[in-house]
Design goal:
Elements lengths: L1 H16 L12 E7 L9 E5 L6 E2 L21 E8 L2 E7 L8 E5 L20 E8 L2 E7 L5 E6 L9 E3 L1 H7 L3 E5 L2 E11 H21 L6 H4 L3 E16 L5 E4 L37 E4 L4 E5 L11 E6 L4 E4 L5 E3 L5 E9 L5 E9 L2 E10 L5 E7 L5 E10 L3 E12 L12 H8 L5 E4 L3 H4 L22 E3 L3 E3 L5 H11 L2 E6 L24 H16 L6 H8 L10 E4 L7 H17 L4 E5 L7 H13 L3 E7 L2 H6 L13 E8 L5 H16 L4 E6 L3 E3 L10 E3 L4 E3 L1 H10 L5 E14 L5 E4 L2 H6 E8 L4 E8 L5 E6 L8 E8 L10 E6 L4 E5 L3 E7 L3
Parallel strand pairs: 13-42, 14-26, 14-34, 26-29, 29-30, 30-31, 31-32, 32-33, 33-34, 35-36
Antiparallel strand pairs: 1-2, 1-12, 2-3, 4-5, 5-6, 7-8, 8-9, 9-10, 11-12, 13-38, 15-18, 16-17, 17-25, 18-24, 19-24, 20-23, 20-25, 21-22, 21-24, 27-28, 36-37, 38-39, 38-40, 40-41, 41-46, 42-45, 43-44, 43-46
Helix pairs in contact: 8-9, 8-10, 13-14
Bound molecules: alpha-L-arabinofuranose.
């Protein structure tokens, strides 16, 4: 007993004095830390520390260690009055997300640096959650808080995960728990909480914050500083030598990621020319839209209305009723005008019914201004829906044509699903793709196509999750949907069309379906937090995912879903190998429970299908860390990494994958780009691909994002390919993807590129020295394509120097004449294309890589 008392006394004394103790190394054992926010709701929790609680030193100085992830993108992600607890070496935080919802936010961390993906528990008393105070009492976490109505409550939890129902408490009890203090940090009076922590913890955070800020500086480096960076350097030269060793790498390294963003599908790759062909536009697509949008009524005394009585199909519930005097018409201008070519043929189809049983004649005209380019007349006599078809052949070219449907007589007529579709599509597929755009994609020679998203896949709220089954079958039976990017998805480009396109270009299909949760940035269905399907619906949902595998690969004789595929025109299987589950989701408990459920079900029934999981939107941080630990724990086949970062990140992260475990989960770099469409960006991307190739045993696939963007309808910049209704504008980044897609290898040949800089010494003599900046920017990768046995050398030069590179290669078994593709110019150039030439090679040949260039040298096997 006496020993215990003595120990307790020592502990109390130590606690009382340790903040001032100075150890041998002149450091205190412990310090005070102050956790606070700046007052701006989009800011996060910050920290300052102090020896004496008088002078406070901010960390960062302004670093947010954790920000709220609740709510839709941007300013809706808010954090108010966080309360932080330091207990047993761990940090816990709770905060108020806004004053409308009956929820609050929780997270925890072992080091104050990486925080667990947040959870947003519900409160079941229909009161909101303001000014929380978090503490621990008798081994339980206790949160006392106030509400808008002036009440005080407490909730508690054993595990910081399951919370008790709110119990009302007195304001005295609340005040007793309130540890908030005002402290002056850098001259600003701030409200927060004071904790005492071991000094090494703060020291570690100081190191991490400084490191992050240093890395940030490196990541923001750009070629505009090259004059300073290479001051004193007169020239560069390099030698590329190979070790003779090689390893197998993925042959699927370059693919494409198609998402319906920036009007990529309707009005883009999907060749339909009529906008809102089914009168299904609505204000969920965009506030001001409705079923009449993009249709114009003409004709004196004419009127029209939208009806939902006896539609063609429940999934296509709206249609137009044109109430007419003679000459009444509806006109559609397509997606910013309809482009047609003289002599080309266009499939016109529409559903019509006579509303009063009288026979009606309608004229359908393709017009350019007042000039009629093509027309047809249709007799409508049925009171039930009937599809009418015709072919229109315009007599002249037009870029802004329109389609008019005019009634010849009087009467009411129902109209729906009015479609004008070019017969010339990519590979002349019916209901196919715009040929020039699809060809531009095919020219990359992508080894796979990921679709349909992105955020489109997990959707804006649970109701908006992408359900593949709603995208197949007759077009008018498909369920159109609002698009998370603020417009409408007709689903005319559905899973059958995606799979057909993959087959047409020799690419593996990689469908990505929601993991039973919607986008954590949703603005609908629960104020934006990530929602999950109820667990009792997950069995059906897992079946829905497995039905896709059956639809793609099954035998039509035995499988209902495979029969649907065969009836649509594809009796042979599509040979699906991959299925993505989830898209950069918050790795919350809600997500983990559902992902594991789906992964286990799919792997149990289809062990050969590779499941692609997700590890968040960044190359580091909570979702990355927790996503990867889930991947390791569950032995997920592949995970999808995403990062959109500046060129400097690629230059200074070249060993990012060299340290990855080679035996476990593989990587699909599913979304990446370097935030610009200038040569400087494209070269950073080429550099990254050389590093991906070296790591092609662990990184098995990659795809630049986003892929397509329509001029005038772009939500996200930069993109790989821009287009309008008539033209396609591939970017300089596109040419890097194309050069790499056309020059994929199956073996990586180990080698080394040694770079030397010539500098002028004080005595005027020239000396050769190592130069780290140059070594980071003159890089190479050598691969063998075992199908052709060709050797492919990729050389990246992101310096202002034409750099002679001695190629120390054993090239006896290759033809001496090599093909060289070079993309080069000024770092700011955005409108350049690769130039093709040839090079006579022997071992030791010097190839001069132009300043700011990407060269791909292909040697043919003899
Ligand atoms: O590529 C654009 C978007 O970026 C994707 O939809 C999403 O996955 C990511 O945030």
């Amino acid at each position: 007993m006496r020993i215990i008392l003595l120990a307790a006394l020592c502990f109390i004394l130590q606690q009382a004095t340790s903040a001032r103790n100075v150890n041998n190394e002149n450091h205190p054992d412990s310090v005070y830390v102050f956790t606070y926010t700046s007052g701006s709701p989009t800011d996060g929790i910050k920290m300052a520390y102090s020896i004496d609680c008088r002078t406070w030193i901010p960390l960062g100085p302004n670093h947010s260690f954790v920000k709220s992830d609740f709510g839709s993108w941007g300013s809706n992600k808010r954090m108010f009055t966080p309360s932080v607890l330091y207990d047993n070496g761990k940090w816990y935080a709770v905060w108020n997300v806004n004053d409308e919802v009956y929820q609050f936010a929780t997270t925890e961390s072992n080091n104050f640096w990486v925080w667990k993906p947040q959870d947003y528990p519900y409160l079941n008393n229909n009161e909101n959650f303001l000014r929380p105070c978090l503490s621990k009492q008798a081994d339980k976490f206790l949160v006392r808080y106030q509400t808008k109505s002036g009440n005080n409550y407490e909730i508690c939890s054993n595990d910081f995960h399951q919370w008790s129902s709110p119990q009302q408490i007195s304001s005295e009890e609340y005040n007793h728990s309130n540890k908030r203090k005002d402290v002056t940090v850098s001259g600003n009076k701030l409200s927060g909480e004071i904790h005492r922590v071991p000094y090494p913890l703060v020291e570690e955070l100081v190191y991490k914050v400084n490191d992050a800020s240093l890395r940030n500086t490196l990541y923001n480096e750009s070629c505009s500083e090259d004059a300073a960076r290479f001051r004193g350097v007169k020239s560069l030269k390099a030698r590329l030598s190979l070790t003779g060793e090689s390893k197998p790498i993925s042959t699927d390294l370059i693919g494409i990621f198609f998402e319906d963003i920036n009007y990529s599908a309707d009005g883009g790759l999907y060749a339909e020319l009529i906008q809102n062909r089914d009168f299904e536009y609505n204000n969920l697509d965009r506030g001001e839209w409705n079923p009449k949008s993009f249709w114009e009524l003409k004709g004196e005394g004419a009127s029209w209305e939208i009806s939902t009585d006896t539609p063609i199909h429940a999934n296509n519930s709206h249609y137009a009723v044109l109430k007419s005097k003679k000459g009444a018409s509806l006109t559609n201008n397509g997606f910013d005008g309809i482009v047609v070519k003289q002599g080309d043929t266009y499939d016109l189809s529409l559903f019509a019914k006579s509303m009063n049983g009288k026979k009606q004649m309608i004229t359908v005209m393709l017009k350019d201004g007042d000039k009629t380019l093509a027309s047809t007349t249709i007799k409508v006599s049925s009171v039930s829906w009937k599809q009418y078809k015709s072919i229109l052949t315009p007599t002249a070219d037009a870029e802004k044509a329109s389609l008019t449907i005019a009634l010849k007589g009087e009467g009411d007529i129902g109209l729906d699903f009015i479609s004008l579709f070019p017969q010339k599509t990519f590979k002349n597929r019916h209901n196919g793709l715009r040929a020039d755009l699809a060809q531009t994609l095919a020219d990359i020679k992508p080894r796979f196509v990921r679709f349909p998203g992105g955020c489109v896949s997990h959707g804006n709220g649970l109701e908006n999750m992408y359900r593949w089954i709603e995208t197949i079958g007759p077009l008018w039976e498909r369920k159109s949907q609002s698009n998370i990017w603020g417009y409408h998805q007709s689903k005319g480009l559905g899973f059958y069309e995606y799979f057909q396109f993959c087959e047409d270009i020799g690419a593996e299909p990689l469908p990505v379906l929601p993991a039973g949760v919607c986008c954590q940035n949703s603005s609908r269905g629960g104020h934006g937090q990530q929602g999950g399907l109820p667990m009792n619906e997950m069995d059906d949902y897992a079946q829905e995912l497995m039905n896709l595998i059956d639809w793609a690969n099954g035998d039509p004789k035995t499988s209902h879903y495979a029969k649907l595929r065969a009836e649509a025109g594809h009796p042979l299987p599509f040979n699906l190998k991959y299925i993505g589950v989830g898209n950069e989701d918050l790795i919350s408990d809600v997500f983990v429970e559902r992902f594991n459920y789906l992964n286990k079900k799919i792997k149990a029934k289809y062990p050969n299908i590779q499941v692609v999981g997700t590890v968040g939107p960044f190359f580091e941080g909570s979702d990355y860390e927790y996503g990867w630990s889930l991947a390791r724990k569950e032995n997920i086949d592949i995970v999808d990494e995403h990062y959109y970062v500046n060129p400097g990140w690629y230059i200074h992260s070249q060993n990012y994958y060299d340290v990855y475990d080679r035996k476990g989960t593989k990587v699909y770099l599913g979304e990446w780009a370097s935030r610009g469409n200038r040569l400087e960006n494209a070269l950073a991307e080429a550099l990254h691909i050389t590093n991906l190739e070296r790591n092609g045993d662990v990184v098995v696939m990659s795809s630049y994002a986003p892929l397509l963007a329509k001029h005038g309808h772009t939500q996200w910049n930069p993109d790989l390919i821009y287009f309008n209704n008539t033209d396609v504008f591939p970017t300089v980044n596109y040419y890097v993807q194309q050069l790499c897609g056309n020059n994929i290898g199956s073996r990586y040949v180990y080698g080394d590129i040694a770079v030397k800089a010539t500098v002028e010494g004080r005595n005027g003599n020239m000396t050769e020295v190592n130069n780290e900046s140059a070594s980071l920017r003159v890089r190479s990768s050598v691969v063998i394509d075992e199908e052709s046995n060709d050797m492919i050398i990729k050389l990246v030069n992101i310096t202002p120097f034409d750099t002679p590179i001695e190629l120390q290669l054993d090239i006896q078994s290759y033809q001496p004449k090599a093909t060289v593709n070079v993309l080069s110019g000024k770092p700011s150039d955005s409108d350049i294309k690769p130039a093709i030439s040839s090079l006579m090679l022997k071992s030791g040949t010097v190839y001069t890589a132009p300043a700011y260039s990407f060269s791909v040298i292909r040697l043919k096997r003899i």
